[in-house]
UniProtKB/TrEMBL annotation:
Described function: May be required for ribosome biogenesis.
The keyword Repeat belongs to this UniProt entry's keyword annotation: no
Coiled-coil regions listed in the entry: none
Protein known as: Ribosome production factor 1
Record InterPro entries: Brix, IMP4/RPF1
Domain Brix: 115-298
Keywords annotated in UniProt: Ribosome biogenesis, rRNA processing
Locations listed in the record: Nucleus, Nucleolus
Classification of source organism: Eukaryota, Metazoa, Chordata, Craniata, Vertebrata
Biased composition (Basic and acidic residues): 60-70
A GO cellular component annotation in the UniProt record: nucleolus
Amino acid sequence: AGDGGGAAERGGPPAPQRVLFPPTFSVSEIKNKQRRHFMFLRWKQQQRKEKLAAKKMRRKEREALGDKAPPKAIPKTIENQRVYDETTVDPTDEEVAFDEATDEFAPYFNRQTVPKILITTSDRPRGRTVRFCEQLATVIPNSHVYYRRGLALKRIIPQCIARDFTDLIVINEDRKIPNGLVLSHLPDGPTAHFRMSSVRLRKEIKRKGKEPTEHVPEVILNNFTTRLGHSVGRMFASLFPHDPQFIGRQVATFHNQRDYIFFRFHRYIFKSEKKVGIQELGPRFTLKLRSLQKGTFDSKFGEYEWIHKRREMDTSRRKFHL
């Protein structure tokens, strides 16, 4: 404080003073709302400066030590602190290989069936849901859109089986917004119920590419590690034909992170021989598994393999099921 006063007496600008708070100071104790917000912003700015200064200091120390510098610390995240799940799939496990060879998706992976998808909606859908179904049909090859009016799913499923459809996708909506997806593998199931959120149509995506072509896209399934996640991943894979047409440079990605499944549809852009970029085509959405049911859709007498019970299962933020 003495230096600042001397500088002022000599006519120079006062020296900047560092914001200091008492050890027991709490911003919430300030009664005035504007003053409380101002002091909080100043405190956050000070925290950022200190963090940046410490980061620069560590970098200089590492440069000075050279090869003798200690290894960088791995930051703690929810993903790398995940609680181990006993159902995690081991690709070399014989039991897993036997299950894959005998489950409902085996005919698809053995190339005995060709995917044929029916996309339908809830009763009397609105415009946004209709547009979403139309755009989803351009992503999934050999898919057909049907807008039902009062026809029950139990009557649709036998007709789908008679017409050689391998999967049924139902898009539900609430207040004109798509909020649910039912995926039923035909003819023997299983049926997965998802909560849908963060739906973005093509016109709502910034820097989007041109309309997708009719080429069969590649499929990327990320982070489906448990037995349940393995089953869900095989359901998504069975929607697309086996052999992608790489000339189309299109890729559909199902990325699982903390039990949220993020869907993105991109096109590769080759900028040079060494640089490759991606351009999103849309649509995009996020899924959260609610239940997995044996057999085809049956809301009353269906047998469930797995149901998400929020109060019982979400006891730890580091516990994931997919």
